[in-house]
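A quick word before the example. In earlier lectures we treated sequence and structure as two separate objects. From today on, think of them as two lines of the same record. Here is Copper transport protein written that way.
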Amino acid sequence: MMHMTFYWGRNVNLLFDSWKTNTWFTYSLTLLVCFIFSIFYQYLEDRRLRFKLLSVSNNTNGSVDTTPLLNTKIVGSRWSVGRFAGSVLFGINSALGYFIMLAIMSFNGGVFIAIVVGLAVGYLLFRSGDDEQVVVVDNPCACA
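And the structure line, produced from the sequence above:
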C-alpha cells in the first residue's frame, strides 16, 4: 500500500515497480541518485535559460525585454533550429521535474530531504550567480 503521509524508513518503492529498496545500501544509493538527479535538473534549467537568453539577445541586439506579455513581435521564425532546440531542452527539463515531483510523492522523508538539498546545491552551483537577468527572460508572471 502506498503511504499518504511522510514516513522514515529504508523500504521505498520509487517511480518504478523494479526500483525498490530493502537494505540500507540500496536506500543510500537511491538517496544519492535523487540528490544527483536534482542537481542535474538545476544544471539543465540553467543551460536552458542561458540558451534562451543567448537566442533572444542575438535576435534583438542584446536588449532583454522585461515585458514579454506586451511584446507582440515574434523573435525568429516559428520553425527555426534554435526554437526547436529550446523546446527540446524545455521538454527534457519538464520531464525531469515531473520525475522529481513523483519521487517526492513517495512520501519518504529521506527522499524528500535528498531532493530538496540537491535542488538547493544545484541552485547554488549553477543558478545563483551575478547574472540574474537570465531569470527575468523566462519569468511567466505578469506581476513584475
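Notice the following. Residues 21-137 form one domain. We will return to this example when we discuss secondary structure assignment.
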